[in-house]
Amino acid sequence: MISEHPALPPPVSRPWLACAGAACATAFVVSSWAPALFLVAIPVLWLSLRGHAVVAMIVTATGLAVWGASAPVDPVPPGPISGQGMMATDVLSGRYGPYALIALEDGAILADLPPDAVAARGDLVRLDGLATGEPGTVGGRQHRGTVRVRQFEVIGGPTSPIMSLGNAIRERVSTRLTPLVGGRALLAGFLVGNTDGIAAIDEEAMRRSGLSHFTAVSGSNVALFLAVVFIALGPIGVGPRRRAVIGLLVLPVFAAATRFEPSVLRASVMAGIGLAGRLVGVSLEAWQILSAAVIGLVLLEPELVTNPGFQLSVAAAAGVMVGARWPVDRRLRTLTVAIGAQVGVAPLLIAHFGLMPLLSPLVNLAAAPMVALSTVLGVVGMVGPGQFATAGAWLAGLVLWLARFASGWPQIGWLGLLTSASLVLLFFVLPRLRGGVAVTAGLLAAVLILGQSEQPPSPGVVVLDVGQGDAILVSGGGGHYALVDGGPDPVRLISALRRYRVNRLELVILTHVHADHAAGLTGLIGRVSVGEVWADPEPQRAAAADEFFRLLAIDVPVERPSVGQQWALGELTLTVEGPLRRYASPNDQSIVVMVESAARSMLLSGDIEEIAQRELVGLRADVLKVPHHGARTSDLDWLVGVGSDLAVIPVGPNDFGHPSDMVIETLEDSGGVVHRTDVTGDVVVPMG
Q: Three-state SS across 587-608?
């Protein structure tokens, strides 16, 4: 009978799973709709009458816990505020600067910190600032409001020995692996979940390839930590019971070092239950341990039930247990475990992110041995010679390369998930059909790979939808590509280039130094081959452009182009039209490029404003890339004078009022058609 399938939870564990499911369902419903707390009385009464008193008590306790945790907090009064508190998080990097949650005597606040603020979780701090914001939540934790901190000082370390030891471990890892870049940053993620040094685009590559769970410290890391502790205790002859006691004592230290991430909490509590059972002579089945851990965590921290990290961790653990017990040849055991984990998290990945990597099990099979060896070498390097950590970082770099390579592989949604699940089920249930199933799966993967790519016009221009910024792909045909600006986000830029299957750019033009044009270009480094760069970073400077130039390989020439300079790109010619001189405004300093074919022309105008526009007289083009995201900083007569029948505005969500209604009306009244990337997505302009 399928109910007795060896991979499914045994009968002895099913009541435990029912309790865990009831706790999660109650927490989710009550946290989503507070009045549901009163409706919980109905299933509690029914369960009690049916003889399920334990489940009824768990449902009641969970409902009350959620109700207590979701009680509204009193907002911090607007105005000056000063006091002492404890860091509830590390100093975190945000879009507008560093921030942290700080627990004051009367509740937590969200602190916008000075740029030079340095503190660790648990540190005692003194602050002085101005309360400006409303209450809210960060990472599932409520705060009373935002405080713009003017003066910030660390006055002491953590009062908790557990937190002090955890901080020491984390600091040791960061110090040994400095600088935290590339493989060294990824190894810090393997060891203690510190992802501060991993570039955003590499985090996205890890997610798209299905490897992001390796930096979300979990069961294997907890097991490795305990193994190191037990090995260290070996020479002094510590017996099993004492080892269990010591294991229970050090687990909170590891959780503190990894900042109590949901996956760490789940794995640590499961390990703790197993050690406690060994201590008292009680042996629990794996599903019982998972269920007990979930129940305990949801009762203590009800907000975990809506945390994607916790959901994925529990689902992955369940999938691993099913895969490990699936009745197949032992040679396929590693594959079934990887598939089980992927099947477990697949619905959650699609629900939270819209897509999931189809070939994640295969990528994980390749990555898992490297991650395990890298982590072991890293641990040895933390307590012994640093050369081991260097070797571990090198292996982590290979994992990062694999993630970048596999991030372009197929991503699927709900339909793809159902199809894939059906094929996997057929593969294992009907051995005679495995050959046909494998061929079908291969054909579907090929269709997905080809179907998720697009072909740019040949020749033509694609104004990419990268949010509030400019990124323009120029295709000269025959595989000849250039890129004008990179937008604000390297993740979105690389995703767009991958979609058009562009892996080499003969020319990259940075029109000016502002981040909404320059920041995305950093994503090219190590991922897309660049032949030459045209840029004019002087006299203005900006951090985003400086970072791009710093990362460029020394053999990539960077040239300041002169007016009239040309570049032949397949069937297209790119001609520099400006800037005509030095300008005070970086926008007016934009490099202006005319793209021409035998049939059409397109003016790429950067962010030039009225002053530069009035000096660029006589420019005419069939297509105009509207300057400065359609802002009201343009000379309307100049826009009309270009004489374009098509105008393209690269723009995204913003607080600047871009594009201006007046600019759009002027262009349309002159007989042109206006396209916006925030409305239509990528705008494709054929030039043939």
A: CCCCCEEEEECCCCEEEECCCC
User: What is the token pair recorded at 204?
Assistant: 């996205």
Residue among 255, 247, 251, 254 at smallest CA distance from 279: 247
What are 530-543's pLDDT values in tens digits? 999 999 877 777 77
Of all helices (H) and strands (E), which one includes residue 678? Answer: helix 677-680
Separation of alpha carbons 552 and 574, rounded Å: 23
Q: Give this prediction's pTM.
A: 0.75
Q: How far apart are CA 272 and CA 280, in angstroms?
A: 12
- Yes or no: say if 510 and 590 are a contact pair by the CB < 8 Å rule: no
* Residue-wise pLDDT tens digits, 296-337: 898 888 888 888 888 888 998 998 898 888 888 877 788 788
Q: Rounded CA gap, 509 and 579, in Å?
A: 13
Q: Which helix (H) or strand (E) holds 125?
A: strand 124-131
β partners of residue 509: 484, 534
Contact 469, 650 (CB under 8 A): yes
CA distances from 569 to 476, 506, 600 (A): 5, 8, 15
What's the token pair of residue 87?
Answer: 């860091």
Residue 579 CA to residue 563 CA, distance in Å, equals 7
Max CA distance (Å), the chain: 89
Q: Residues 6 or more apart from 228 whose CB is under 8 A from it?
A: 379, 383
Residue type at 648 in one-letter notation? V
Nearest alpha-carbon partner for 219 in 254, 245, 168: 254
Euclidean distance between the first and final Cα of the chain, in Å? 65
CA distances from 539 to 173, 512, 535 (A): 40, 11, 12
Instruction: Show the CA angle centred on residue 665, arms to residues 663 and 667, nearest 5°.
Output: 70
The Cα 319–Cα 341 span in angstroms is 4
The answer to whether 410 and 448 are in contact (CB under 8 A) is yes
Using alpha carbons, select from 491, 489, 493, 492 the residue that is nearest to residue 508.
493
Q: For the chain, how many residues are written?
A: 688
3-state helix, strand, coil in the chain (%, to 5): 50, 20, 30
Query: Which residues 6+ apart lie within 8 Å of 43 measured at CB?
Result: 22, 56, 59
The rounded average pLDDT for each run of 10 residues, N- to C-terminus, in the chain (688 residues) is: 69 84 80 63 62 69 70 84 93 82 91 91 94 80 90 93 93 91 90 84 84 77 82 76 88 91 89 89 88 89 86 90 84 80 85 81 87 91 91 94 84 78 72 71 64 76 94 94 93 88 94 90 86 84 76 81 94 94 90 94 94 92 95 93 94 89 93 93 92
Contact 521, 558 (CB under 8 A): no
SS3 578: strand
Reference 360, options 304, 402, 302; nearest CA is 402
